[in-house]
Amino acid sequence: MQLDSAAGVSKPWRLRPQVSFDNAHVEAKWRANMAKYASGEASTEEPSQAEMGDMFVPDNDFGETQFQVQQQKCDDEDSERRRSAIRRHSSILLSSYITSMGSEEEEGSWPPNQTKKSRLGKLLKSRQCETVIAIIILFNFVLMYLDADARAAGQKPAKWQTISMSACYWVVVVEFAIRTFVEGRQAFSSRWHQLDLCVVVSGFVEQLLQWIDFDSRGIGGIISVLRCCRLLRLVRIVRHLNHMRELTRLLEMTGSCARTLFWAFILMGFVMTSWAILAVEVIRPSVVELTDSRGEWADCERCRRSFDSVFEANLTLFQTIVSGDSWGAVALPVIEFRPWTAAIFMGSLLTIVFGVLNLTTAVVVDTFAEARAKDILRRGNEMESEER
């Protein structure tokens, strides 16, 4: 029961207006009682069971009336709606907060009074400008492909290819100059800007040497190295295709596991060299005996010297174990001649393939997951796009 604040009497029929009833007769009686109460005709005495109808008659073994059941059902629905609204609102606030942190960092890189720098900065960061620059980089890649084929055939590239290559280079120079003007000294703290600086310097030196005609002076090796530096321009495409979420994520994850792959190759080289030293000491006498006494590998000069040195043994193990090439050409004759040498061949196979290589795969996957968990800003953008 609830006490009326004005009269100080108990009024058990002060019900919620959103209550619904399964029985139309009960609802009609409830509305009539509510009308009496609103007009002041209701007495201070508690209404009887007959006056209130069947709404307060117990409907189950627990003594609950129809009104109480309906009221509890409405309360549960209201609570569930409030909880879902709170969860949705919290998700929107979290994504908005995360993305606002990134936008504040971007907006804070330009002074508020320098409108020209702000406009140029917004132009560089626009999707249209980034798409155009990415297309130019891909076109430059096609030109490098044609240039390498022409030089390999002993021909000079077509004139339009040379002009197009120079145009692509000067587009990079203009972008680098505008970005330096907009961001000032802070630009050189970015690794992307440092990469752009390497591309600009190497391209300038290459064009200068071509203008001096170093190829005719027999010092073309320097220009070949500088031409290989053109491939650095392809890395810049990651910077200008950040709106392509899947491609950007794939390239960023590949870059994040580069250190892991480097140490994995070092570990594999250490393990393989250990087995190569053991093979030179143990297997080489058997190979020499097979070659001299039985004339084995008469038509395979590489097989006869497969374990002559640690370097040759490393190449043999990499060829037979990692690449899976010609396993039976060297290993099977030696194992048939000296069965105990199978321990070295099988041991190297198990430790390198099922040990180091599988361990490398597991570590790379773990690195991907860790980099994904740290990418808070991108997750915020994804949450915001999903809410929209």
Automatic annotation (TrEMBL):
Protein name: Ion transport domain-containing protein
Coiled-coil features, chain-numbered ranges: none
Protein's organism: Alexandrium monilatum
GO MF assignments: high voltage-gated calcium channel activity
Entry's transmembrane regions: 129-148, 160-182, 260-280, 342-369
Record flagged with keyword Cell division: no
GO terms, biological process: calcium ion import across plasma membrane
PANTHER family, per the entry: VOLTAGE-DEPENDENT CALCIUM CHANNEL TYPE A SUBUNIT ALPHA-1
Presence of the UniProt keyword Isomerase in the record: no
Main location: membrane
Topology in membrane: Multi-pass membrane protein
Location of the protein in the cell: Membrane
Ranges for domain Ion transport: 129-374
Sorted UniProt keywords: Calcium, Calcium channel, Calcium transport, Glycoprotein, Ion channel, Ion transport, Membrane, Transmembrane, Transmembrane helix, Transport, Voltage-gated channel
Tree of life domain: Eukaryota
